[in-house]
Amino acid sequence: MAFQAAIPPGGTWFDTLKKSFVDVPVDSSNGNAIPTSEFLEAAESLTTLFDLLGSLAFTPVKNDMIGNIKKVRDRQLASPNESSTIQSLVLNELKSKKHTSAEGLLWLVRGLDFTSQALRHTLQNPDVELSTSFRNAYTGTLKPHHSFMVKPIFSAAMSATPYKKDFYIKMGNEEKAKVDMAKWLDALEGQVKVLKEFQDRKEAKW
User: Fold this and answer.
1) Mapping DSSP to helix (H, G, I), strand (E, B) and coil, where does residue 33 land?
2) Cα–Cα distance between 78 and 98 in angstroms, integer?
3) What torsion do the CA atoms of 182, 187, 189, 195 make, to the nearest 10 degrees?
4) What is the pLDDT of residues 14-34, one digit of tens each?
5) How far apart are CA 206 and CA 195, in angstroms?
6) For 197-203, what is the mean pLDDT?
7) Which of 70, 76, 106, 143 fits a 20 to 30 Å CA distance from 35?
8) Helix, strand or coil, per DSSP, at residue 39
């Protein structure tokens, strides 16, 4: 379970991350391979964002993401020699006629896509409140895949976001937070794009 560390003086929430997506190397010379350990650590660090949002309504959102991270990490721990990259982990699992981690990754990528779209919209639309950005992102990413039972739980969280001014106060130094967020989102969006394209390939399906 990831817990939010204290923001250093003059710093931002991004300075508290154990691993940032900015620091996850994507090997363009090897089919955009993404290293498993670094990626999962960055994803786990991201989950402290839901603590920052300050509502218990986000607990199911955070727990869902952590559960999907665990599914991927369990496969990595069980077969480390076949799991150095996210892509090799999935392909080797599918060869064994199993898809637990592949399915976990599918949902994890959807969750990361949701988070990145919500924050990108927040960054690009200074006059729009977080609740609108998060609702729009949920509608375009996770909602179409959620069951009738799950949708109300996640929809409640979208309406429980703080006001934008309060969110930036929680982030730390507002101007630095915006700069850090833009760099972090560039990296996260790039990795989400790589993995979505990978998941669309025939050999990555089950």
Assistant:
1) strand
2) 13
3) -170
4) 999 999 999 999 999 999 999
5) 16
6) 97
7) 143
8) helix
DSSP one-letter string for the chain: ---PPPPPTT-BGGGG-SS-GGGS--BGGGTTB-BHHHHHHHHHHHTTHHHHTT-GGGHHHHHHHHHHHHHHHHHHHH-GGG-SBHHHHHHHHHHTT--HHHHHHHHHHHHHHHHHHHHHHHHH-TTS-HHHHHHHHHHHTTGGGS-TTTHHHHHHHHTTPPPHHHHHHHHBSHHHHHHHHHHHHHHHHHHHHHHHHHHTSGGG--
Nearest residue to 120 (alpha-carbon basis) of 61, 171, 198, 184: 184
| Closest alpha carbon to 19 in 44, 53, 48, 52 | 44
pLDDT per position as a tens digit, 70-110? 999 999 999 999 999 999 999 999 999 999 999 999 999 99
* Dihedral over Cα of 146, 152, 155, 161: its sign: negative
Write the DSSP string, 47-95. TTHHHHTT-GGGHHHHHHHHHHHHHHHHHHHH-GGG-SBHHHHHHHHHH
Please check whether residue 144 is in contact with residue 112, taking contact to mean a CB–CB distance below 8 angstroms.
no
Residue pair 49/13 in contact (Cβ under 8 Å)? The answer is yes
* Residues forming beta bridges with residue 33, ordered by sequence position: 27
